[in-house]
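task queued by scheduler; priority normal; single chain, no ligands, no partner chains; default sampling; output format set to structure tokens
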Amino acid sequence: MSRVARDEVRRFTLAGLTLDLVGGSVVGNRYRENYDVLHVDPALPFAVVADGMGDGAGSRRAGAAAVPTFAARVHAAWPEVGAAGLRTAAEAAQTAVREAGAGRAELTGCTLTGLVVEPDGSQGWVVQLGDSRAYRLRDDLLELVTTDHTVAWLGVLHGWYPVDSPAAARARYQLTRYAGHPAAPEADLLAVTLRPGDTWLLCTDGVSDQVGYHGMRDALVRADPADAVAALLDASLAAGGADNASAVVLRARPAS
């Protein structure tokens, strides 16, 4: 099995709130390379994950263009980041990926899921393109906050086919929105709150497709967020390691 690569915990103290953020990634057993890209910012309270589409040069270029571009735009807008700044950052990531794929035959695209906390800690923003995900664990309830931008999500939601059907499995790979899409669809932008005791998870589908709901929750209740990341990635390997898997965990607690 592949070794889990895990970052150090980043700590941010905001007004009345301390945030611990840590991310990690594993190649898995299917691919030779990791086409996921994650960024846990060392200076500002935000993180983002991306999952390249496919296993070639286009997938690699997409994540390498989207994530640094998004992060740079967040830094440029800080501290007045807000909704307008994040829409601009997502649009810039779209443009960067399309430019990276211009004139090339292979698909150049990736998902993009980010969580950005405003400087006073009172407001957070989830940015979503594609089928990587954001979850929140609050008061022992784990909830999926984002929507998958896939034909499978639409099909299951509207009863086109059962969730465990071959048709749903095929549609899982048909993304309706992603960074690099020729129509440049806008990202979902969700305003969220952060309370002491909340745990947030950003992950690629290498985690969400391989680690079940209860396994995910069991990992996220661990006291150390770094242990939670390691448990999620180890669980993806134990399930077969059929995809690159990346996770970022944010833990909110009262400011000390």
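post-processing summary
- The helical segments are 57-77, 82-101, 151-157, 166-171, 205-208, 213-220, 225-238.
- The radius of gyration is 17 Å.
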